[in-house]
Amino acid sequence: MNTGLDLYLVRHGRTLWNIEKRYLGHTDVPLLNSTVSELKPLKLQMEHEGLVFQYVFISDLTRTMQTLQIIAPHLVGTAVMDHRIREYHFGDWEGSTYDMLKDNPAYRSWIDHPERITPPGAEHFTVFEQRISQFVESRLLPILVKKDGMEPSTGHTQLDMAYPKVLIVTHGGVIRQLVSAYVQDRDFNSVMPGPGEMQVLRLRLQVDQLSGEIVN
Fold it and tell me: Where does the record place the catalytic residues (predicted)?
């Protein structure tokens, strides 16, 4: 079996906390009013490319729904909310800035090794990994299995029309974790999507093994 999905991973638009460079996890901060114009290029890109999404998933936080309402309002009615693709929970460091934490040795260690260090009151990184893995297994794997027997075209470097397109409006940490989990030689700190940016991850299922590649 060799099947695939093209995941269009969109980080939500800009919030006040993004502007202030505060750590923003589970706090339900809305988008800035100016984000409508900031997200317009992404909306136009999606329209220009004629993207048709068979599946749409968003986290259950306000800023992802607001982003979807701006970039693809016609998809709001079909979007499925899933709390497992929320941002990482920063615990006591939620709402803090680098300048507020920079003299904390635990914070310095966490920046270098987020998978080893857990901020006080925060989500353990393995829990974060597990919930995103569970999202993939319960939401995306069934779509891949449904495509059993469909062989992709060979020799193509552009996005393959044979693969279903899945729009996922989520958070920076979730996108980083998806890429690091499935793309060879990528770690969590190698991907830094900005607010309102889109990353396309091709996820393949080969011999019951999931692997991915960045295709844009």
Answer: 12 (tele-phosphohistidine intermediate), 87 (proton donor/acceptor)
